[in-house]
Amino acid sequence: MMIRLENLTTTFGKGQDQFTAVKDVSLEIKAGSIHGIIGFSGAGKSTLLRNINLLQRPTSGQVFVDGVELTGLSESELRKQRHEIGMIFQHFNLLNNRTAQQNVELNLKFAGVPKKERRERALEALAIVDLADKASAYPGQLSGGQKQRISIARALVTEPKVLLCDEPTSAVDPRTTTSVLQYLSDINASLGITTVIVTHEMNVIKAIADNVSVMEDGAVVEEFALSSLQEPSFEPITPIGRYLISDEITLNRAPKQTPNLVADVARV
């Protein structure tokens, strides 16, 4: 397994204000797979994702990535280990006063990589997402889809073993969503990077993931392979699982009132 989480719990606040965002989660993610984590807003999925690279350190439990227990590392050891874990954020997190190439180079600069090597690797990463021609462009000159592809290149430039994606398509339009997911799928296929995607959109999971974990109220309540959806007899075991895989939007509609035109005329 590339990623193994054991009994993770993450709480915020103290006393009466204490809130548990992740509740005793254990999870295994296979090397080279694309694993989806889905749930409604507030389910704890983004916190769980940040637990994997310890951007949010869990209150208790253990995190293993490629056999290394991250929760047992010192801060300096953890910083080195994070170079093997790329992350793509929901809102791009690009610096507006730096070019696309400079944004991609940032993680390498922090790692002390020499300038010439930084430039070469940044251009290679931009080429992977077909944006080598935008190396000198600033974020303000790019579309939302291009910005997200820059953030993908930035995550890839350290040559990670794991790629964490926090709602990577929620800030782009539906057509761009398809493009971003295609790049992530191609990168997984060609480079073998284990990919974890957090989203509240089941169509994203259906398009790209091998397996999915369903979260509700901080806990993983169900897991299944996406290939199971092709089996006529398959049905998720939890109500939220069944709801999330449904493609339909159902509204509780109150009966419409028929205007009483005679009464309205009489009042006039």
Automatic annotation (TrEMBL):
- Indicate yes or no for the key word Translocase: yes
Q: Which GO terms describe its biological process?
A: amino acid transport
This entry carries the following GO cellular component terms, namely: plasma membrane
What keyword terms does UniProt attach to this protein? Answer: Amino-acid transport, ATP-binding, Cell membrane, Membrane, Nucleotide-binding, Translocase, Transport
Q: Which GO terms describe its molecular function?
A: ATP binding; ATP hydrolysis activity
Limits of the ABC transporter domain? 3-242
Q: Which Pfam families match?
A: ABC_tran (PF00005)
UniProt family annotation: Belongs to the ABC transporter superfamily.
Its quaternary organisation is:
Homodimer. Forms a membrane-associated complex with FtsX.
Q: What does this protein do?
A: Part of the ABC transporter FtsEX involved in cellular division. Has ATPase activity.
Identification of the protein by name: Methionine ABC transporter ATP-binding protein
